[in-house]
Structure prediction request, 410 residues.
Amino acid sequence: MVVSLSRAEAGAVSARNLEYLDQHIQKQYIDAGKLTGALTAIYRKGHLAHWSVQGLADREHGTPLRDDTIFRIYSMTKPIASVALMQLYERGLMQIDDPVEKYIPSWKNLRVYQSGVYPNFVTTPCLRPMTVSDLLSHQSGLTSANPALTNVDAAYRTVGIGRQVNANLQEMIDRLAEIPLQFSPGAHWNYSIATDVVGYLVEVISGQSLDTYLQENIYEPLGMVDTGFWVPPSKASRLATNYHPDPNGGIKVFDAAATSTYLKEPTYFSGAGGGVSTAEDYLRFSRMLLAGGTLDGERIIGRKTLQLMARNHLTGNRTMAQAVFSGVARTAYQGQGFGLGFAVALDTADGQIAGSPGEHHWSGAATTHFWIDPAEDLAVVFMTQYMSQSPANRYNIDRELRAIIYSALD
Prediction:
């Protein structure tokens, strides 16, 4: 168990300031009825500096949150799938500037949306082919069905794109071939289903299903014993319930642990958002990234490859705020670039938040967060289960965590 890791000499971290962290989560979120529970793990300079388990995993049944509670990590699956594809890069099996059509021939003639609604689109040719790097950095021109902000988004819903509606990744790939890109590859940054395509490339290039590949090449070597795409019966009692806003105030059940779709083994393995994990498992993955690709003698990926992944790959070295397709630059995008699988801090003053240039991170739809700060030899994992389905209902907890945690570092 991770709680057995030494907390001694944890890199000069202020215990008093970390008490502020637990107090803040308890008072502002749990006692206020915004979250049922939360788990915060902080690892610094080779030691577990903080491990805090607060509140409940299931409010309706009074089930306490535990060290080994299993959480839906949604988009925190993306860095895992991205590392998997980059392992194949390290084997010489693909290059990140390869055109995607090399691996998906049916995408050879993808076009870009100009006007119209499905199926009557007016389109133009791409200015250049989509590359593997475009997929990893969300510059592919792909989009997603939720929320349906554009006519291309709406087409995804009409045709049926994603793990809720497709039987497998191949079906998703075939349906995407029918829909134009939102923009020409490399022109903008747009958060999308691209990492499901990354997972498909892992399958095509490795010859294994994504779940099998991840199990053999990442989860088993790292000892991530509770991470995967579903929760088997022997572990079902450890799955937390997921909540979302109640229009009448507070929160209500979104996905009950006892009846969750995550209790059924899937056939669609979503690298974009289908994963489940524990804080301990994800901290092991984070510690591997922090250590340059190795943990407990197991090399998962090379140090130089990780350095490449943690560079800003947005065209023209733009920030996400400058490159985002929608034109709506959220505060979280300021001072942030995007690498090959996660966001990368470029300018903390522009981002208006404490941290270090080069810190890389991402979050999940259920308000889970993680970040790696090589300059401070720091890894943080935060787990809870609250679906922030619209900007009006999102919590600012990731920025609050950074403010408190960085204040505790000497």
User: Anything to note?
Assistant: The radius of gyration is 20 Å. Residues 2-76+223-407 form a domain with the Beta-lactamase fold (CATH 3.40.710.10).
